[in-house]
């Protein structure tokens, strides 16, 4: 009785080792370069162009604010040099110039926030689409893992390059 219990346990252990070995050998790995894929997408090129135009529009407004500030400062300097300002007038103009300077700084921060939001708005749907295509391709073709060489991931020698296959799906 004791021997049959040991034999049964050994049999199950051997079966378990065989199952693990079989499943490990059945794993399928692939790799691709998502950065290369994305750089070729027309939607990325369109998003790049739209973001650049948006940044230029915001930069133009900022440049206009700085130009106005510089003009006001030069006018103030000219009045100080000619002595046509009273001390109270000079203080009022200085306060106004400080307010303009603060407004420029606030605008610069606002531009950074707006550009970040616009970038997210433009690129996130594209990234999601690419990720979904990769995931679906992996599921449809039985891949255990797909590595992204564009992110500097270490690749297995036995992995298959899926860049062209996913590119065809996009």
From TrEMBL:
Protein name in the entry: Membrane protein
Any one biological process term the GO annotation gives: protein stabilization
Molecular function in Gene Ontology: unfolded protein binding
Coiled coil start-end: 90-117
One Pfam family this sequence matches: OmpH
Residues making up the signal peptide according to the UniProt record: 1-26
Protein keywords: Coiled coil, Signal
